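REQUEST ID: PR-0412
SUBMITTED BY: lab tech R.K.
PRIORITY: routine
TASK: structure prediction, single protein chain
INPUT:
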Amino acid sequence: MKNIVVIKKKIKKFNKIITVSGDKSLSIRWVLFASLSSGISKAYNLLLSEDVIAAINAVKKLGIEVKFKKNFCEIKGNGLYGYKYHKNIIIDAKNSGTLGRLILGLIIDTPFKIKLIGDKSLSKRDFRRVTDPLSKFGAKFKLNNNKRLPLTVIGTNQPKPIKYFENKGSAQCKSSIIFAGLKTAGNTIIKAKKSRNHSELLCRYLQLPVKIKKRKNFDIINVTKAKTIKPLNYKIPSDVSSSAFFIILTVLTPNSSIKIKNVNVNPSRTGVIKILKIMGVKITFENKKMYKGELVADIIVKSPSKIKPINCPIKFNSQAIDEFLLIFLVAARAKGVSNFKNLEELNQKESPRLELGSKILQQIGIKTIVTKDSIKIFGNPDLKVSKKITIKDYLKDHRVFMTSVIAAMTFGGHWIIHDKDSISTSFPSFLKIINKIKNEK
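STATUS: complete
OUTPUT:
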């Protein structure tokens, strides 16, 4: 029973100032860029979740030296071509799609077979979206069931530049191709649907040969071979996806407010905030600053007196893809019907989140209509939940667990939520911060 959380009562109103963990996307990318650099890189506030530790273990298997000091992590890179390849390397990406897909671009030149594995959830996800373009460079891949992990890769010592149309809005696919392009002579050109741009911003900060032309719906990214990557010392800002749980907790708890300090509010990641503003939530940024290409600020949220339904603009989908489970909870409290479309990417995450999000809402008494890529939510601002609800069998998806906790604390009822340890994937301190907000030890 230790891996279960039981919640029997709603949270009381609060007014809090909190700090959340370091950004997961930036933490993993720091590990990968630092491993390719020429020299020693240091990271402060590195997120020590299972996904990030998996990234550290991956580069260590490739001969990279990693040390943990008192308050920072240190990586000694051996240069762009400094990985030590040998036979029988197995890289375990655990639950991390970011690591699993990005690392394939880094090892495009391996002369030996490398096996990539992951946990049960990651092994259900589509890897052809990244192996297809990487194979055009000249690497060879063998995948399970033609699209899934485990897979094996053998690289090429003369990768060829490619032209590729990335039309799914996958930052992971785009980033993997960028990494491969940095090891390839000639121009690699990516026409990429708008998505998160952390990799591009780090490339710009590191003065790497990556040029971007912005269009309305796509970016044209031109990548040429890099000579060297300089070390990256980084104080990682807090994660906006982790912050979103406490933003929604505040939105759904009457007469409450919260300040979340020093959060990465990169515009390609703040779709949840833009959507909530349309729904009538007051959210402001304070102490805004640019830090190594990323916009950082304190987020201030006050609970609204009423929530408006929304026909969610699809232009925000890629910016909020990890937060839609939480947004669905807000729509459940709206007076009216909300519509969300073109969300097929939601089922390419750790679990079929569109289906599971609908299931959670139906369990609390909210009517939904779901298709393979859309959901219609019939909100009820007067909903009160008093029944027993059990959440399990969701592939241990960390965001399903944490969303269920927020639902339990704000809608009421007697909740039994399984697989508490899933939060180790991305946000080990989640429950500790929840207890701080509740004034519990």
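NOTES: Residues 398-411 form the longest helix (14 residues).
REVIEWED BY: pending
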